[in-house]
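A further point concerns the way the authors explain their paired sequence and structure data. An entry of this sort, consisting of the sequence and the corresponding C-alpha cells, reads as follows:
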Amino acid sequence: MSSTGKKVAIIGGGVAGLLAAVTAADHGAKVLLFEKMDKVGLKMGITGKGRCNLTNNAPIMDFIAMTPGNGRFLFSAYKRFNNMDLLSLFHTWGLETKVERGGRIFPASDDAQEVRHLFMRLLHEKQVDVHLSEPVLHIQTKKGCAAGVVTGKGTYEADAVILATGGAGRLHYQGFPTSNHYGATADGLVLGYRAGAKLLYPDTLQYHPTGAAYPAQIYGALVTEKVRSVGAMLVNADGEVFMNPLETRDVAAASIIRECTERGKGVKTPAGQAVWLDTPMIELKNGAGTIEKRIPAMMRMFAKHGIDIRKEPILVYPTLHYQNGGLHITADGQTDVENLFAAGEVVGGIHGRNRLMGNSLLDVIVFGRNAGQHAAEKAKSVSVGTLTLDHVAAFEAEKQQAGVTDHRLSPQLLPDYARKIHPAEK
C-alpha cells in the first residue's frame, strides 16, 4: 500500500513493536520506531532459551480454555489473526519452521537471531524510521488525544502512538531477581498512566519458579521447565523432595518461596536463599547423554561457570519473568486515551491474572499486528494541531494534592545498580 503520509510513532522495539511497525507500514503509515536500547528485538533471544518459541499448533479453543479468568477477551483478536495465520506469515517472509513435542513451533535453525534479523530486514524494506538509543520521556497530547512523543533528542509529531515497551522485571519488585533484559523498567505503564490510560491487574506478575540462584553471573536467568520435565526434582536443604516438579508456575514458585522462608529449609547462597534442582537425576533415570541431547543450552550455560549439571545439582529460586498486569485496551488495541494504542507485555489482562507458559510470543505478535493495523487506520482521520504536555503538569499537581512526595525519576528508563552508600560509611 502506498504511504498516506500519516505518522504512527511506536515506543519500544521488542516483538510487539516490530510487528506493529511492519503492519502499520503495510497499511500506509509513515512509521517512527523508538527504542531506548542499542538493538531491537532483545527479548527475542530469551524466549525458548535462545531458540525463539514462535507459537504452538494447538487449536485456538485450547488457547482460550487455558487462559485463566479472561479467555473470552481473546476471541476477537484470535479470530482476526491466530497461531496458524502467524505461522503462514513467517513462512511468507521466508522463515523455515519445525514442530516439536507438545506442538511447540521453532525456527528450523534453532536460532532466535534468525528471527531478529528477519525483522531488521523487514524494517529496512518498509522504510521504517528507526531511532535506537533514544528513550521516550513523554507522550504529547492534543485535547486529551495522543499526538506525538518527546525524547531526549527532540519532539516528534504523530497521528497515533503505540506503546510497546515490554515488562518491568528490572524494577526488581520486592527484591526478586529477573530474567528480563535491561530495558524492562515499566516505561509504558508510566507514560500511559500519566497520559490518562487506565491500568488493569497492576499487582499481577509472573514469577518463573526456577531462575538460576548461583553463580552470581547468571543470577535470575531462566532454568527452563524442560529440566524438570525430563526428570530433575526440586529438593530442599534436608534432601527432601517437597513438591511435584510439574506443577504450574505459580504453585511451583510459591512452594519454593515457602520452603526457603516459612519452613526454613532453603539453601543459603551469596544472594539469599535457594533450593536444589537435582539435575544428575535426569541421567540416572534416562541414561547417559540425556542432558546433552535434551537440554544442551542449560548444560552450556552452567558449564561456562564451571558447573557440570550432569554431575552436580544446581541452585534455583523464583525470578520475575512476565508482567501480567498493565494498560487496559479495547479489542482494537486502543487504550482509554484516544489515538494511544498498546501491545505486548505492557498490556494488562490478556492472560487474565496468570499466564500459560509458551503463550507470550503469540500474544505480542497477535496484538502487535492488531495495534499496528488499527493505529494506521485511525491515523488517517486524525488532524494534529498544537501539541502540549498539559497532562504531565496536571498529573504532577494531582500527586501533590494527594500528598505523594516520591521524587524518583519516572520513567526510570534503565535499572539502578549503583552501589548505595550506607549512612555509617559516610
